[in-house]
Batch of 4 targets.
Target 1
Amino acid sequence: MLLCALASGSLATMCYASDRNALLAFKAQLIDTEGALNDWDAQTDCCIWTGVTCDNTHSRANSLNLWATSTNCVRNSSLIVDPKIDGSNFVASLSGLTALTQLSFANLQIRFRFSIPPAITLTNLVSLSLSGCQFSGPSIPAEVGNIVKLTDLSINGNQFPGGLPDSIGNLKNLNSLYLANNQMKSIGSRGSPC
């Protein structure tokens, strides 16, 4: 009987409900003008959604890649954060993705009308790419320094004239840091010029 169930696929592994709910809450905050995320549907496995990758062992969403030039991503789309959404709500929707190790919005025409929200709670991230997302604000939030597992951080192509927080020094595993084209005037609290 078990063999028949396996053969029919009725025991197929589905993504965690909490991951699916977090991703759907994130999608609800976007205006998807070209239907790039149409396959993000509550009735389907989020592990096969555009831009989502899950680990093979636990079926947890471990990568959200909406990078405009990747092969496993949204292409030529225009995702816009709903103007009614503020930065803290935006991050709250992603905070349920506790197994997420990679988050990339690089070069996507996703227009953020706020700074990178300070309530960054994705502490398992190893790679964070927010390049070219039109984030703006006085400086990169100090809470970025709490994501201590980061090895790659790309936040170039935004607008952070205030520069880097001192907490960036907490990122002991950091191998690459991309900051170009941010209009930065200084680095750290001592105001070292760029």
Target 2
Amino acid sequence: MPARRRINNDEKDILDGIVAQLKSLTDPAPFHSHAAANRSRLADDEHHAGAGIHIRCHSIWTSAPAQRKTLSSGDTQPLPPDRKTRRREKNRVAQRAFRQRKENHVKQLEDKVAALEAAQAKIEAENAKLQQDLARAKAENTMLRFVTFLAAVERKIINAVSN
């Protein structure tokens, strides 16, 4: 089994970024905070639309009735059905496009994670091979030092006997 290597800071930052992006795509909190800001903006628009005619706008996040025009006399008229239908269809198309973009982005991030994990596995395998080569070289070095030491001792013994 190859030895596990430590992930360097750059690789860790990349993986942390990918994980954060995946979490942000599945976390509903950013959408809720945006919705609250949108509701308050729409409420302000309702009061500052103009002098004679006030148009009440409703967000998809509110439970208010369909858009209506309020005339200065106080009478209300519902929006024509074709405008409602067009708006609903436009919202459906936009939501579908957003879901598709989100799905594509998640897929890209998952592919990137898989590629990084494969690269990490390749690097770990190379590291294990290099560690084995190093151990083999150290053993060979130790053996050669021992052989050299024995040869030096043998020469000294031969020189001592011949003198």
Target 3
Amino acid sequence: MLPDPVLLQFLAIAWGGIVSAVAVRSDVRWRRIPNRSVVPACVAVPLLLALSARANAPGDPPGFPEALAMALGAGAGLAGVHLALALLGGLGGGDVKLALLLGTLLGHSGGAMAAAWGGALAWLGAGLAALTSRCVRRARARAPCSAVPAAPPPSTVSEGLPFAPFLVAGSWAVIVVTLTAEHAR
């Protein structure tokens, strides 16, 4: 007998949330997303979601293969887009693995459209942050010398914008909205 499907779904979502928080903290501080947290979650979360779908309807539920395929397909789709962008430069492998995890959760909560919205919100947020950062740098460069703050000390962290905070924020905004709408029905 399988455990309660709601408990399994809760465990999958909670695990994804914890890994998301770890990824954001790590990406902001060191521009690295740790494999030791993301990779196990990329395996365990789909398994928990599959067990949840299976336990929800004993026997051979007609929607089980489709629901599992939707979650895995959305995860693979979002990861595939990020992999293509990583190969072009600018994204790291950790962002791709995080996209796989979050895409699977997005696919489970709302299908392929949820994954598309999560990715779109992430890129919109990152684009706005990059534009704002560029405008602030240009404004500081044009300011009088006395108003320009001293240069920050040299850092070992790359100067790029960390992407994990935007991927997590966009994805979890969609996950919360879709799960809330689903339970409101």
Target 4
Amino acid sequence: MDCRVVVEAAIPVYDVGSADEAVRIAISKTGDMLNPDLNYVEISMGTRSCPHCGEDMEPAFVAADEALVALELEMTVFNVEDEEHASRIARKEIGQRMQKVPLDIIGVETIDSDDDTDSESESESESGSESESESGSESVESPEKTDQAEEPDEDLLPDFQDLMEEN
């Protein structure tokens, strides 16, 4: 099962004059924290509303040239057991790169896998996220392969100490 997870992040921004400037800086700052490891995470402005009247507000709260910006980080998590598992994975992956930034899961949406024929081309283009999760198992296998390849080569080349003893 694949899921699309939306995480809300509260990004602090310093020395700003307006809410628009704060949002631009927060998006840039978040992109710097996430890239290149999580370049498949989509960053967008968060939505805020007044808790009393429900009126929509700007995603940034500015006071004394400092701002707190609400951003939504959206990522697809592949091969999960359930929605809670997907939210834990997304929170861990994003949280490791954005330390000391409060995160909250806004929503988890299950992606239909009925369109496998249509999504094969999309999954190939988004295979960066899958290949990174699979690369952990590949990196475990690759040292074994290199060890096997190096053992025959060791017999062909003399050791450094053997060369020094001959001289």
